[in-house]
Write a structure and sequence with these properties.
The chain has 11 helices and 10 strands. The chain is an alpha+beta fold and about 400 residues long. Helix 1 packs parallel to helix 4, helix 7 packs antiparallel against helix 10 and helix 9 crosses helix 11. The structure holds flavin-adenine dinucleotide. Flavin-adenine dinucleotide binds next to strand 1, strand 3 and helix 11.
Length: about 400
């Protein structure tokens, strides 16, 4: 049953968001996919910001009709956007991932300087964690953030890769090592680096199999300097800030996976009921309806896990207590997205792998990133199993 965990107001919000996205995103979706059109993405971010949808997680800033806005609603936005175009949705996820640490951990002047522009869709941000030698294993991070006491500035040196919005963002939230003597993974801090800071360059932009329109590349920091008040939280508290960000990002990604999976399923469902072979609709064949049933079960499991995690977050569950439910939502949703995309292509036959007969091939290409971004499926399983096997140390 759709929307089983949602309240009446949440369902009304879904309907409202769907209308806005049909008006703002749908007409631009082919420019994003076929034309790699970043301006089209930016225009939709702006429209969503103006509609108040990028403030959903910040009750003190939100001025819309919802009595209690929260991650449940941000996840609904993510799901509905990903249903139309997953590439665009990643921009929402990144905007929220930037806004979150700024809202919680920035000094007042920095918060005032960047947060309103990000949540109103006028500015775009980027989150810089991943490096050439530090992907899943963030404890291998090499980027250095050093304090120059004489000038009261932080100096950043290092190279980040696979950074969404690299080169097009107005502001970069950068994680690096402030205490090299701390054990691996400790001693990290996060600083805000404005776009245009001297020493900030973008050596490479990647070409991906899917997610056209997204800009993802390298970000290099060659002794970039920012004033001391650009530090987020306290020095060496970056690990904790990162955990908070990943928890909610994984739930938003649950919404993305669900939206992508639903968009594939709807295509398969329609095709199975119209395409004929061997004297009947292909949906009459057991090998086909069995795949439909499998997709349907996984979709419901995804929806329940995703909105359970979002509702837990909205009820105040945080930190370590949220890790397992958030990881479960991310794991099941993103694997369901690739499963449904793959089965839909199969059910469509040749139509599934051509551009001429609809979006199945695009969804298949787009979906493949989901079990990798925001922490891989293997890392999500680790977080789940750590909670389930508390008396032993799992081998990472
Ligand atoms: C399109 C895209 C956008 C991205 N955007 C951003 C962004 O905006 N900001 C950012 O910081 N990063 C971003 N990333 C990076 C992303 O978070 C990383 O790609 C991801 O965390 C995996 O890291 P990696 O690619 O280095 O793979 P690796 O960590 O090298 O992993 C390779 C494989 O080994 C597996 N593996 C690793 N360790 C173990 C283990 N202990 N046990 C079992 N399996 C293991 C992994 O699960 C994976 O299958 C983005 C990536 C992509 C593809």
């Amino acid at each position: 049953m759709r929307d089983f965990l949602l309240a009446e107001q949440d369902r009304a919000f879904r309907a409202e968001v769907r209308d806005v996205l049909r008006r703002e995103l749908l007409p631009r979706a082919s420019a994003i996919e076929d034309g790699d059109d970043w301006d089209a993405i930016k225009a939709v971010v702006r429209a969503l910001g103006e509609a108040g949808y990028l403030k959903l997680m910040f009750a003190d800033l939100y001025r819309g009709a919802l009595a209690k806005p929260g991650l449940t609603h941000a996840t609904l936005l993510s799901e509905e956007a990903a249903y139309i175009n997953y590439a665009f949705e990643t921009t929402i996820a990144t905007a929220l991932s930037c806004a979150y640490p700024l809202h919680r951990h920035a000094t007042a002047p920095i918060r005032e300087h960047y947060l309103p522009d990000i949540v109103e869709g006028r500015m775009v941000g980027a989150i810089c964690v991943t490096e050439p030698d530090a992907g899943s294993d963030t404890s291998r991070m090499q980027t250095k953030i050093e304090f120059d006491a004489a000038r009261r500035e932080y100096v950043i040196r290092g190279l980040k890769r696979y950074i969404s919005n690299a080169g097009v963002a107005d502001v970069y939230i950068v994680y690096g090592v402030t205490d090299p003597s701390a054990p691996p993974g400790k001693g990290l801090s996060a600083v805000v680096v404005p776009g245009g800071t001297p020493g900030l360059t973008f050596p490479r932009r990647y070409t991906f199999m899917g997610r056209r329109g997204c800009v993802v590349g390298e970000v290099a920091f060659d002794r970039c300097r920012v004033p001391a008040d650009h530090l987020l939280g306290d020095e060496n508290s970056g690990g904790r800030i990162m955990v908070g960000m990943f928890n909610f990002e994984r739930i938003i990604l649950g919404g993305s996976g669900l939206g992508v999976a639903r968009s594939a399923f709807d295509i398969a469902q329609a095709h199975a009921q119209t395409r004929e072979a061997f004297g009947e609709k292909i949906g009459c064949k057991q090998l086909v309806w069995s795949q439909i049933a499998d997709m349907s079960c996984r979709l419901d499991a995804t929806e329940l896990l995703t909105y359970r995690a979002a509702k837990l977050y909205d009820s105040g569950v945080a930190g370590k207590n949220l890790m397992k439910p958030a990881a479960m939502a991310k794991l099941v949703a993103t694997e369901t997205a690739t499963y449904c995309a793959d089965r839909t292509v199969q059910i469509l036959g040749g139509d599934g792998i051509t551009k001429e007969f609809g979006r199945a091939e695009q969804i298949y290409r787009d979906a493949r990133a989901l079990p990798i971004v925001g922490g891989t499926s293997e890392m999500a399983k680790y977080l789940i199993a750590v909670a389930d096997l508390p008396s032993i140390k799992l081998n990472l």
